[in-house]
Amino acid sequence: MTDQVEKLIILGAAVSCRGRDFHDFMTYWSIQPNVVVQCFTGTQIPGIEGRLFPAEMCRNDLNGNRYPEGLMIYSEQDLEALIERFGATMCALAYSDLNYDTVQSLAARVNAAGCKFVQLPPVLTQLRSTKPLIAVCATRTGTGKSQTTRFIAEHLQKQGKTVAVVRHPMPYDEVLLNQRCQRYEVLADLVKYRCTIEEREEYELHIEEGNLLFAGVDYEMILREAEASADVVIWDGGNNDFSFYAPDLTICVADALREGHEEHFYPGEINARMADLVIINKVNSLPSLEQAKMQADHLRNTLLKSNTPVLYGISAVSPEARDPATGKLLSSEEVDELVRGKRVLVIDDGPTLTHGGMPFGAGYVLAKQMGAKEIVDPHRSAKGSLVGVFKKFKHLKNVLPAMGYGAAQVHDLENTVAGVDCDTIIAGTPINLESVIAMKKPCVRARYCLQLDDENMNKMENALGPFVAS
Known about the structure:
Blueprint: E1 6-11, H1 20-27, E2 35-42, E3 52-53, E4 71-75, H2 79-86, E5 90-93, E6 98-99, H3 100-112, E7 116-119, E8 133-138, H4 145-158, E9 163-167, E10 181-184, H5 188-192, H6 197-208, E11 212-216, H7 219-227, E12 232-236, E13 249-255, E14 265-266, H8 268-274, E15 277-281, H9 289-302, E16 310-312, E17 314-320, H10 332-339, E18 343-349, H11 350-353, H12 362-369, E19 374-375, H13 385-392, E20 400-402, H14 407-418, E21 424-427, E22 443-451, H15 454-469
Parallel strand pairs: 1-2, 1-5, 2-4, 5-7, 8-12, 8-13, 9-11, 9-12, 13-15, 15-16, 18-19, 18-20, 18-21, 21-22
Antiparallel strand pairs: 3-4, 6-14, 10-11, 17-22
């Protein structure tokens, strides 16, 4: 049995995977002597099928030139046909934020087709750093990982440390070699690397706040670049995936508005079980802090390691708007006039609303907070691919997800926004959406950040103490 060659299909290349499949291949599967990978499958990203993972990143120097032509990416819809076509004997799951029913359904499809179904543990694919490394992960998409990462980066920088943030991959370029190792220092780099809306949502605020940011596809190359530029490396996770790097401190962010999801979504439960510190975020959106304390007690009794501290985070949302002619920031009174008593269109973070399953985001919270007269339903104005988004994600009502995985979808978003009858647009996406699409109505940005009270800040400082002292 040990000499049997396994023919493997890697299930991934999805919006909710964002490169986990490629990382697993490069760090583990490509160098296994008795495994030959046949292809990747992908889902959810428009046009992902038919792309090529290039031979230059297949580690052919270590596997006897096993993949001289690279590997193709096919649609997950065709999984059974692909298993038959390639004579596959095993399929490996390599993407994230899947409910357990979906995971088991995939396993059933694979098993029914005669294949083994495999999930790799973190230890087999986590690269080790020469610098102290903090990993920020989550139980679900949209819990506030990047808020937390920026909070930690700011704290360490105030203590005199240089920080490099490594962002979970978002490999959307048709030519993946273009994204092998990316370094972001100024906003112009977003244009240089032709970033999608989804990439901008994760990168832009880091750049605005002065964080040196890395991303791409080849995460060993990226790690070595980050190490050369910083005292401390912070892994800013994507969705609820676990870290690509072996951390010295694992922080898991849970969502006070999605209590119980910690136990029902892959691989978020893994992050909770491995966490050295947990933050239950958005507690300010609850009727009472007691609800979050009950959530924390349940986690302590079921998932967390003994003595893992649980913090309660506030996701503070505030408005910002600029004069479109001068770019000057408007006063709080002027911003208030744009929203209070007005009919508003809310555009919120795409991944949070779609595979994250949230019915609203920060923009919706701000609209309510500022006394908007009406939050306009965008369904009837949906154009192109946005029609399909609303059909697929039926929980979405009075919010528009900021979808933009390519130029065509950005165009659909722009046309959808243009067709909505409203007074003001509230953008809850982290980016300056006005720099990406044309808007004919005033736009108010919902800015949001993590805040901790003194008691919770003391716990955070205790956890970060070794990184300050290093």
